[in-house]
TrEMBL record:
Domain Enoyl reductase (ER): 3-261
UniProt protein name: Oxidoreductase
Organism lineage: Bacteria, Bacillati, Actinomycetota, Actinomycetes, Mycobacteriales
Organism for this UniProt entry: Mycolicibacterium thermoresistibile (strain ATCC 19527 / DSM 44167 / CIP 105390 / JCM 6362 / NCTC 10409 / 316)
Gene Ontology MF annotations: oxidoreductase activity
Membrane-spanning segments: none
Length: 265
């Protein structure tokens, strides 16, 4: 679903908005919604055919690899943070699962918006890595008491929590501030969560679903990237001929940021 390249007809440098038929409602996609590479052929190719409506100008300062890393992950992070959770400057943001592609963008975007950013991870090295791109610190979510550690680290809990894991919503409820927001963008690590309902309503907590984003979200994300000079974190780059190696590395869970596949010029 991710991709960047040059239009064959005009020579314009573009990035691909990864959604088809979102519709007119920014709140959510319509009944004919689809994803590039799901309902259509994807971007593992030298020539890719997509509707003209999903082509947006490539941010000029980004390399091809950086531009190709943007669409799905950056869009997902942007919508979760700003359209759904409405993060504001000065708020404390906790990003669960540091090192993944969406979470890496979430750290950079929240830091660029002048939020105070913390993370959880299963790896001390990943926490150190994201501290270089804006996180102030983090805790290991492999520790059973990680929510308590977050409360101590954030002086009482996070205003906003961004999670790509359904199962970690349980712990998130234990370390979100009163009136806080939890934005969930995926089911990685578990589709089900046990919800402490009194903590939800007594704490006035909002749990928000978020998935990819509208055309408006995508356009705003690209403007945000340009204005804040965001440079996507690229872990490794593989040629298309080594696509199996790229997938093996991606699935190893040792990466921080994006794995990018290039095609011959």
């Amino acid at each position: 679903m991710d991709g960047a390249g040059m239009r064959c007809d005009t020579g314009e440098e573009v990035v691909i908005y990864p959604c088809l038929n979102w519709g007119d409602n920014r709140a959510g996609p319509g009944s004919h919604f689809a994803i590039v590479g799901d309902a259509t052929d994807g971007t593992y190719a030298e020539l890719v055919a997509v509707p003209e409506s999903v082509l947006y100008p490539k941010p000029p300062k980004l390399s091809w690899e950086e531009a190709a890393a943007l669409p799905c992950a950056a869009l997902t992070a942007y919508r979760a943070l700003f359209t759904r959770a409405r993060v504001m400057a000065g708020e404390t943001v906790l990003v669960l699962g540091a090192g993944g592609d969406v979470s890496t963008f979430a750290v950079m975007f929240a830091a660029a918006a002048d939020a105070e950013v913390y993370v959880t991870s299963s790896s001390p090295s990943k926490i150190r890595a994201v501290q270089k791109i804006g996180a102030k610190g983090g805790v290991l979510h492999t520790d059973p008491d990680w929510p308590q550690q977050v409360r101590e680290l954030t002086s009482g809990g996070a205003d906003v929590i961004i999670s790509g894991s359904g199962s970690m919503v349980t712990g998130a409820l234990d370390c979100v501030k009163v009136g806080g927001r939890i934005a969930v963008f995926g089911p990685c690590g578990g589709r089900m969560a046990m919800i402490n309902v009194p903590a939800l309503f007594l704490g006035q907590v909002s749990i928000l679903g978020s998935n990819l984003g509208s055309p408006d979200d995508f356009g705003e994300m690209l403007v945000f990237v340009r204005r804040n000079d965001i440079r996507p974190v690229i872990d490794r780059v593989y040629p298309l001929s080594e696509i199996s190696r790229a997938h093996s590395y991606f699935e190893s869970q040792v990466r921080v940021g994006k794995v990018v596949v290039t095609t011959p010029a």
